[in-house]
Write a structure and sequence with these properties.
By secondary structure, the protein is an all-alpha fold. Helix content is 80%, strand content 0%. The N and C termini lie close together (11 Å).
């Protein structure tokens, strides 16, 4: 019970930066998608570039965050945490510096490959910001490992604060914004925020002498399967937005990407909770692995995680008529039909992340690569099959099918090598109940105050039932 409280407490603190702060950042969506700022075709440019940014982030960090956690906790191997940290940091630096140099030398060629031939400056600014973020990620991982959650949260809040403040300045205070700069404002703002956080992390930069050549090889051996898994995971998470540019007609692609990208943001409550949970859960799982009841603890964590995710699903879907106005331009609202599909997809993704503990604790990181590659294959096949006919709706269904398949594969495989007594029936009931309550409420077709009152009661009832069941299970 104390372990669960520790995890819940750390998730809450990390949530200040990854849920609360990102939710504040989400409030920029009404600004970016308002009639006076970016129409769908311009917002589509931002969406497409940041879809590629997700792939590049995985390459630049090379799985070194998880690798650092693993080697720091190998106490019986005599690995000093500072040696592991310095080795991870300089490994990432060895990837970042050539990458930024390449993008500085050939920005226009890179932009042409992305089918944005006139946006070389955007490619360069994004590359610089990603390089700074990759190095910052390792320093932030050290804060997580050392349990300095409040400082971690503060630095991320600062990053978001700069982003929000400058966005309000450029797009609200100085509106109309300079059309000669256009979407480049977004990239300038992100670069400034990344640079500020990187500079403030300077006290955590390791000395070059801390790099351990003998430790480098086993760390890279542990990391590269995670990097491949992460890269395949990014195919699953962001290839839909990147591939829309290539699979839709050129005259509508940016518009469709913009609509899809804006509506994708409405799944933010689940995706950001998953992110915050992962920040706290990864060191938690490694630390709990030696406890006698660790597997039962992992199973209880899964129950609570799915319950919270489905509560978020209900909260958004039962009140979608209100949430949609976070995107104030009705030109985007045609994409709302993908929101429930994407939210359920991310619930399955969260389930998969929970299950990944089995192959990380048994040092079978290649399993993660294999499952993610299978998922990437499913994603790409379905994207090519569905996007030409269904557009971004096909992209959303491809995402759901991919994550559901990955969760099922991981569960079956994991039970053979590291059995965890997951309550599959309870997890599926939580998911089915959430979907059924939403679907049933939609069929009633109520209006006005009565509609919102009933929807509120449905949400509270779901939470009450879940709380009662989980409280009884913990006491038992």
């Amino acid at each position: 019970m104390s372990a669960l409280r520790q995890l819940a407490g750390q998730t809450a603190i990390y949530g200040l930066s990854s849920i609360v702060a990102r939710f504040i950042n989400f409030l920029l969506v009404p600004l970016y998608t308002s009639r006076s700022v970016f129409p769908p075709q311009e917002y589509g440019v931002v969406t497409a570039f940041y879809a590629w940014a997700a792939f590049l982030t995985v390459i630049l960090t090379f799985g070194m965050e998880t690798t650092y956690f693993r080697f720091t906790n190998k106490a019986d191997d005599g690995v000093a945490p500072r040696r592991a940290y310095a080795t991870a940091f300089f490994t990432v630096a060895g990837i970042v510096l050539p990458f930024v140099a390449l993008c500085t030398a050939f920005p226009d060629a890179i932009a042409r490959a992305m089918r944005y031939p006139d946006q070389g400056r955007l490619a360069w600014m994004l590359a610089c910001a990603l390089g700074l973020d990759a190095l910052s990620a390792i320093a932030m991982a050290r804060l997580r490992q050392e349990g300095r959650a409040w400082r971690f949260a503060g630095l991320n809040l600062l990053h978001i604060g700069i982003t929000v403040g400058l966005s309000l300045y450029f797009f609200a205070y100085r509106k109309p914004h300079d059309p000669s700069i256009g979407v480049a404002h977004v990239f300038i703002i992100n670069l400034i925020a990344s640079a500020a956080r990187f500079v403030l992390l300077a006290p955590l930069w390791p000395r070059p002498a801390g790099l351990d050549p003998e430790l480098l090889r086993p760390m890279v051996a542990f990391a590269w399967p995670l990097a491949i898994a992460g890269l395949a995971g990014m195919v699953n998470e962001t290839a839909d937005r990147a591939m829309l540019k290539y699979l839709l007609p050129a005259d509508v692609a940016d518009h469709e990407i913009g609509v899809y990208g804006a509506c994708y943001k409405l799944a933010v409550l689940i995706t950001l909770f998953i992110q915050a949970f992962r920040f706290a859960a990864e060191p938690f799982f490694f630390g709990q692995a030696r406890q006698a009841d660790s597997r039962a603890t992992f199973a209880r964590v899964m129950n609570l995680f799915v319950a919270v995710c489905m509560a978020a699903f209900l909260g958004v879907m039962l009140f979608i008529d209100l949430f949609k106005w976070f995107i104030p331009n009705p030109a985007y609202h045609a994409g709302l039909r993908v929101v429930p599909i994407l939210m359920l997809a991310n619930v399955f993704l969260g389930i998969y992340y929970n299950q990944s503990v089995w192959y990380k604790l048994t040092d079978r990181t290649r399993v993660g690569s294999t499952i993610s590659l299978i998922g990437a294959g499913i994603t790409l096949v379905l994207l090519f099959a569905l996007i030409p006919a269904w557009g971004y709706v096909g992209a959303a269904w491809a995402t759901l099918c991919c994550y559901a398949a990955m969760a099922i594969i991981s569960y079956v495989w994991g039970q053979r090598h590291y059995p965890i007594p997951y309550d599959v029936t309870r997890v599926l009931l939580y998911m089915a109940a959430g979907v059924a309550l939403w679907w049933g409420a939609e069929r009633l077709a109520l209006e006005g105050a009565l509609k919102y009152a009933l929807h509120g009661l449905l949400l509270l009832g779901y939470l009450a039932v879940v709380w009662r069941k989980e409280r009884a299970a913990i006491r038992a």
